Amino acid sequence: MRIDILTLLPELLDSPLNHSIIKRAKDKGLVDVVVHNLRKWSKDKRHFKVDDYAFGFSAGMVMQIEPIFLAIEELKSERRYDEVIFMSPDGEKFDQKTANALSLKENIIILCGHYKGVDYRVRQHLVDREISVGDYVLTGGELPAAIVTDAVVRLLPGALGDEQSALSDSFQDGLLAPPVYTRPAEYNGWQVPPVLLSGNEAKIHDWEYEQALLRTKRLRPDLLD
């Protein structure tokens, strides 16, 4: 899989994309994550300007369409992309189902907005879908792009040490994950539930499902609607 990220601030992505699961997946050759500075495609070779004032009376600067168009055009000339995604606070809500679907793609482009946003013609003509990580506004799309990349890469076969681990994550089956415990079995008088120490696989699975259902009813009842 290859993920190309277009951004004005590539340094914001250095840490999240070069550690932990993503780094191991890259080292194994499971994914290639390439971050591109959009200023590379600016026609202003002195200041590398990529934004301008909005038409009308809107406040704030707007990312210009030309550098974005040139960047996407160049990338598409090199390989076929399944989707071009724009990270936007008013896009479709990102969830585990979307992460699962994206993990099956071969190549995707993620565009990070900044300032007041992008020239709307980018959204009309250059992207295939818009994704939001929540109903709030961040300074730019870099952190949301890192979130999407992390959620997708960890699903790639071989990315996790135990591939079954991702299948038991919260939301994979529409429920929150059940509680998990580790050694010691008793600490400060707090006990691990005896069923987890029983070795009875069937009873443990039943307990995990019951606990997942109870946690979902208590914390996220909307998932059960």
Shape, please? elongated
Instruction: Kindly report the spatial arrangement of strands forming the biggest sheet.
Output: 2-1-6-5-7
What order do the helices and strands follow?
EHEEEHEHEHEHHEEH
Tally of strands: 9
What characterizes the major β-sheet? 5 strands, parallel
Rounded to the nearest angstrom, the distance between the terminal CA atoms is 35 Å
Structure characterization notes:
The chain has helices at 20-27, 65-78, 96-102, 120-125, 142-153, 164-167, 201-219; strands spanning 2-7, 32-37, 51-53, 61-63, 83-93, 107-112, 129-132, 186-187, 190-191. The protein has 225 residues and is an alpha/beta fold. The strands form three sheets. It has a five-stranded parallel β-sheet. It has a two-stranded antiparallel ribbon with strand order 3-4. A two-stranded antiparallel sheet has the order 8-9. The longest helix is centred in the C-terminal third of the chain and has 19 residues, at 201-219. The radius of gyration is 22 Å and the shape is elongated.
Features:
two-stranded antiparallel ribbon, alpha/beta, 225 residues
Q: What's this, in brief?
A:
This protein has 225 residues and is of the alpha/beta class.
Question: Any chance you could write out the topology, listing elements then pairs?
Answer:
Elements: E1 2-7, H1 20-27, E2 32-37, E3 51-53, E4 61-63, H2 65-78, E5 83-93, H3 96-102, E6 107-112, H4 120-125, E7 129-132, H5 142-153, H6 164-167, E8 186-187, E9 190-191, H7 201-219
